[in-house]
Amino acid sequence: MRSLRRPIGARDQLFVDVARHGALPSASAATNTAAIISAINESAELDGIVKFRGLTYNVNSGFVLPANVGIHADAKTLLRFGDTGTAFEVLNPIDHEMRGRELTFPAMKRGTSSVPLWWSGTDTTSIGIKIVGLIYAKLYIPAVLNFNTGVLFDASTQNIVCNTVTLGRINNNRTGLHLAG
Predict the structure, then answer these.
(1) How far is 52 from 176, CA to CA, in rounded Å?
(2) Residue 76: band (very low, low, confident or very high) from pLDDT cuts 50, 70, 90
């Protein structure tokens, strides 16, 4: 699968579209999860950006975004998460600073008919977005709904320094925003 080269700012970046890997609104959660993981892996090889079109994707597992991968979700993109773990974990190891990294997340909503929500008392671990040690990045988080913790900034092992963060609708979470470390 070939990715398209597009200009972003002062340099070219490779967009890797999750749809080209098989993620579709009509696909099963397992298929979408595998497709998004495949797109993230391809982006990691290319120092690229994972691209989500403005669609709803059901997923059954979380994702780890490596330090050299960006994310861009069109408006109205929604990830419907059916698990109790972390939906997105963003890593930025100290030896791989990505200055100016831009991350535009999809809206994220936890819960399906088979997954209990945090207010049922059985979910004490779900996290919408976990940011671990991020430096000089621009983040846009349009919505995080129905998680135990909506957005967690974790500086317990690495610093979180000089980021621009735009938060949208962070509600119906037990804890909306948690700063740790």
Answers:
(1) 24
(2) very high
